[in-house]
Fold this sequence. Notes:
By secondary structure, this protein is of the alpha/beta class. The protein has three domains: 5-55, no CATH class; 64-75 and 128-300, Rossmann fold (3-Layer(aba) Sandwich); 88-123, no CATH class. Helices cover 28% and strands 25% of the residues. It is built from nine helices and twelve strands. The chain has a six-stranded mixed sheet, with helices on both faces. A two-stranded antiparallel ribbon has the order 1-2. Helix 9 (263-274) links the parallel strand 10 (250-255) and strand 11 (279-282). Helix 5 (146-164) packs antiparallel against helix 6 and helix 8 runs parallel beside helix 9 (263-274). It holds the Pfam family DUF58. This is DUF58 domain-containing protein. Residues 93-241 form the DUF58 domain.
Amino acid sequence: MCVHPWFKRAFKVTYQIENLPRGSYQWQRLELLTGNWFGLISCSKTVEEKQTLLVYPRYQEIVSWSFGNDLHSGMVRAARVKKSEETASVIGARDYAPGNRLARIHWKASAKSAGLKTKEFEHQVSHDVMLFLDRERQAYGDAEHPLFEMAVSLAASLARYALKHRFSCGLVSYGQTPVVLPPRRESEQLYRIFEHLAHVKADATYAFGNTVLREVVHLPRGTTAVMLSPVLNKQMVMLLADLSYRKMKAAFFWIKGGREATPAEHQHLLLLHKVGIPVYTIASASFPSRLSRSEIDASFAQTPS
């Protein structure tokens, strides 16, 4: 005879596991133990139950993200968007998404395809972002380095912000296996990105700069290439300057951590500032909810590297 808790034939117990690292967890069976308060009677049962639990990466709520384009601030007035659409050129069509206004439907493109298409304006393309996550092992020194966890969390937060504001967002993530998620703006894209980020490690042997140069040529017109890396050196500056020279939009998130920047790194920040590359310095896992460009300390302008 087995005594059920509170003398009930059925009951439900809910508990929460705190601070569970991202990743995939599997279990094969559950072992249930019960008895009375005094330990005189006990009962156990093993239930074969195979389950997989996927823990998404941590993310933070971003209120605004400004890198020289007010439309990224999260405070766009509907009237302002409508006015900009009236003056912007239609440069293409994309799949219809629920909530799109009737005036946006591209009837000619819809007639030639199997479904509804909406107009894509020149200014809309400039809102799209492609995240480039640096997974090069040499950049972190450890596949599970705290700085890499900061980079993953930041990537998840930026993707969530972009898709929440109906910008197309994609991800380039080269590790042992190259993964490229093309820019999309439907809600399912966030789950694709989060599912990938749940498993990633800093296990790439392919140079991050080569990854960027290989993939950036495939970006849709006007897409902003957003780099997330703990490395700020001469090669990174040359890479970003090259993108600027090609008239490609780029932004750089420097995953610095709590350490002080070196004089050479300050020089690199100054150079990026001069070529117009927005730089955001991430010093801790809890970054500001309003992302704005890093301030350049002019006192380092004459500091030799």
